[in-house]
Write a structure and sequence with these properties.
The protein is α/β, with parallel strands linked by helices. The chain has a domain of about 130 residues: 2-Layer Sandwich (Nucleotidyltransferase, domain 5). It is built from 8 helices and 12 strands. Helix 2 packs across helix 8, helix 3 packs antiparallel against helix 6 and helix 4 packs across helix 6. The longest helix is centred in the last third of the chain and has 26 residues.
Length: about 300
């Protein structure tokens, strides 16, 4: 998500119905489905209402497709089949993501509504972490930062803080152009053999001991500022992953400090990459920020979409 995208500052927008409209769901329908339609993947999740009034998460999944409509119907069909859901079981479908705008008709006549994406980011981050107040970072193709706070009465207010074009798209694009590698699996494999000392310039490389009191000498002074002629593809891959993660991490640190918070919840596909996770782990103690990567972090936004109350 690029930094220039519009925010929903301090409030949740009313969830508009899809232009398709949709049929009224059965009164006893138990399941709300969330769908997050991205550029190349679609994520889907469900919540089933139990007899005691609680909601149970139905395990999320994702599908890949270059066409958003194909991706939506592929995800919906697979999800309902694997979880043995009939259309009559589904109360409504909550859609979010850049590709949701391509829907021009109902999904099998179901009640279909659109969720503001940043509201989904905030709601999903709080649900997965169990927190009441936190900075939520969505690391997808680009990166978005949201402040989410649960108020008295249970209503959650989300405030879009901004973002950056640095994200998963940056990592994939640069590794493809520089290294000829464009899959997450291959990038992660290369990173395992990388050495940042052949790529990045650190504070201790350019300063004397104790020249900057209180500043960790192992922090990066310049990404790729010490690129060696002998640097391998593994070194460069690790340097690229480190650059993306450090950029996002520092934005999150500034956002957390600005709101006097210590908890930052990380969501989105990049949370699955081990070299990305390691950067946040290393910076946690240095900046005294609690970076949290909860279970199902990659599905944060779609979970939030399913939880959104229209």
């Amino acid at each position: 998500m690029a930094a220039v995208e519009a925010g929903f500052a301090g409030r949740e927008a009313e969830a508009p119905r899809c232009v398709c409209g949709g049929a009224t769901a059965r009164a006893d329908a138990k399941v709300v489905i969330g769908i997050d339609v991205g550029g190349s993947t679609t994520k889907i999740v469900g919540f089933r209402q139990e007899a005691d009034g609680s909601s149970t998460l139905i395990h999320p999944l994702f599908v890949r497709a270059t066409d958003p409509i194909t991706s939506i119907y592929g995800a919906f069909g697979r999800f309902t089949s694997e979880n043995q859901l009939a259309l009559s079981d589904i109360r409504r479908v909550m859609m979010t993501g850049v590709g949701s705008s391509y829907m021009s008709g109902p999904i099998y006549g179901l009640d279909c509504r659109t969720v503001p994406e940043f509201s989904g980011v905030g709601l999903g981050g709080l649900y997965l972490s169990g927190l009441e107040d936190a900075i939520i970072v969505s690391m997808g193709t680009g990166t978005a930062l949201v402040h989410a706070k649960r108020q008295a009465g249970g209503r959650t207010v989300t405030d879009y803080l901004g973002g950056t074009g640095i994200g998963g798209g940056t990592l994939l694009g640069l590794t493809k152009k520089i290294l000829g590698v464009d899959t997450v699996e291959h990038i992660e494999q290369l990173c395992r053999g990388g050495d940042l000392s052949k790529v990045d310039l650190t504070i201790k490389d350019i300063s004397r001991d104790d020249q900057f009191p209180g500043v960790n000498a192992n922090l990066t002074a310049a990404n790729f500022g010490k690129l060696s002629d002998l640097a391998s593809n593994e070194d460069i891959a690790l340097g690229l992953a480190n650059m993306v993660a450090e950029t996002v991490a520092m934005l999150a640190v500034f956002a957390a400090r600005g709101h006097k918070l210590q908890n930052v919840v990380l969501t989105g596909n990049l949370t699955n990459l081990e070299p990305i996770r390691r950067v946040f782990e290393n910076l946690r103690d240095i900046f005294e920020i609690n970076f949290i990567i909860p279970e199902n972090a990659r599905f944060g936004t779609v979970i939030g979409a399913a939880l959104y109350e229209p």
